[in-house]
């Protein structure tokens, strides 16, 4: 690990101005960096990698609504019958597209389903069609609810609302 002090190249130092002002100006321009990749002779590759682990929001941008997970679009299915199996869910949901993953959690004590499942699709269109068609439908005699697992909230305004 290396500690490095970077001074912006655009700073012009006045050698003749030997006062507190020059020291303060110099301190404002110094950036202290710690960690790997900042040693002497290292290139500034870290500045090019700023968006490395970001998720592509696609056509839906910053607007409120469903949000893509790292691998796909996940639906949260509630009120699932306790004796439902993965085959029951995949049979019902595979009509709308290829299912990438199904997560079913079981209760440790009883061994039955906890009442919810997560179903992942590769594309937004498949997940949207399944959500629209199956929300409120019957699965093993129970009405299931289908909604997005990850949802972006409304944009936060920078102005604070006054409370009276």
TrEMBL record:
Domain of life: Eukaryota
Stated role: Core component of the splicing-dependent multiprotein exon junction complex (EJC) deposited at splice junctions on mRNAs.
SMART domains associated with the record: RRM (SM00360)
Residue ranges of the region described as Disordered: 34-67
CDD domains, alphabetized: RRM_RBM8
Primary localization: nucleus
Basic and acidic residues composition-biased segments: 42-65
Keyword RNA-binding: yes
GO molecular function: mRNA binding
Residue ranges of every copy of the RRM domain listed in the record: 73-151
Keywords: Cytoplasm, mRNA processing, mRNA splicing, mRNA transport, Nucleus, RNA-binding, Transport
Protein name: RNA-binding protein 8A
InterPro entries in the cross-refs: Nucleotide-bd_a/b_plait_sf, RBD_domain_sf, RNA-bd_8, RRM_dom, RRM_RBM8
SUPFAM superfamilies (alphabetical): RNA-binding domain, RBD
Species lineage: Eukaryota, Metazoa, Ecdysozoa, Arthropoda, Hexapoda
Subcellular location field: Nucleus; Nucleus speckle; Cytoplasm
GO cellular component: cytoplasm; exon-exon junction complex; nuclear speck
